[in-house]
Amino acid sequence: MPELSIRIAVMDDMEDIAAISRSTWDGDDYLEKKARRWIGDCSLYAGEFNGKVIGTFRLSPMPAGVLWMEGLRVHLEYRSRGYGRQLADAAFATGKRIIGSGKSRCMEFSTYINNDESIHITMSQGFRVVNRFILMTREDIDPSAEIERFKPVQRDFTGLSQHIPCGWKYPRLCPEGIEWALKRCDVFRTGDVIFLRKKGSDEATPIRGAEENPDSFLDGAEASARKAGHSRSCIVLHESGKKIIKKAFDRGYDTWEPVGNYNILIFRYNM
């Protein structure tokens, strides 16, 4: 199998990158939307074959010395040929060099529980699961709850464990991570429940009070979804929130495929 040429992506690659994105998840992929900004900060890498970019990955700094890995993609026409493994190996090697230089302490990334190929590759490189969440959705919501904007302080983040769900990125639960998340999320309160909603996303996650008042959180999440113009509610919960998870299932929330208490895995690599 021919070797890919791995390099930092440039603006001239956008046409190829857009084609990769449109061939991923039936076109419901975020890579094309994010690529220009990622190219601008030199965090997006391209895998080139015969003058054409057929794959990507991104490595970017996150709070607490984390180097976050994402955007690992291979164009649909080039899958199942080993190029995904080449890109993953290149991402790991690049990340290890960055950690070795002292600029980061570890690598982390999130993935769906049934992404078997990625999980197998990363585990073989020494990554391990350090946290687990569940992403659930409910269609055709008809909310009536009242919500208000809220400015939280650090002690309000008592309902989280190790990481803060923020779209498909999960900053560490620490002062720097809280600051990072608050720049990218709106915060709402309904009753005694406080929750985050990622800007430009339909995902809400509780940070305080939901375990004691799960219905209040679900009411608020649905109200914030409708406020944003969505007809469905999407929530992300830590696997330990069994009471909230059960209540959500009872209320009509569901997952992409049948799962127990989690479907999102957070992996970490330490040298």
Briefly characterize the structure:
The chain is an alpha+beta fold and 271 residues long.
Could you characterize what this model shows?
The protein is of the alpha+beta class. The chain has seven helices and twelve strands. The chain has a twelve-stranded mixed β-sheet, with helices on both faces. Strand 2 (44-49) and strand 3 form a beta hairpin. The protein is globular, with a radius of gyration of 19 Å.
Question: Which features would summarize this protein structure in a list?
Answer:
single chain, Aminopeptidase, globular, 271 residues, 2 domains, 12-stranded mixed beta sheet, alpha+beta
What is the fourth-level CATH superfamily of the largest domain? Gcn5-related N-acetyltransferase (GNAT)
CATH fold topology of the largest domain: Aminopeptidase
Work out the number of β strands: 12
Which regions have little confidence, pLDDT < 50, spanning 5+ residues? none
Q: Mind summarizing the main beta sheet?
A: 12 strands, mixed
What is the string of SSEs from the N terminus onward?
Answer: EHHEEEHEHEEHEEEHEHE
Count of DSSP-assigned helices: 7
The CATH architecture of the largest domain comes to 3-Layer(aba) Sandwich
Shape: globular
For the record, the count of structural domains works out to 2
Instruction: Walk across the major sheet and give the strand order.
Output: 1-2-3-4-5-12-6-11-10-9-8-7
| N- and C-termini, Cα separation | 30 Å
Classified by CATH, the class of the largest domain is Alpha Beta
Radius of gyration: 19 Å
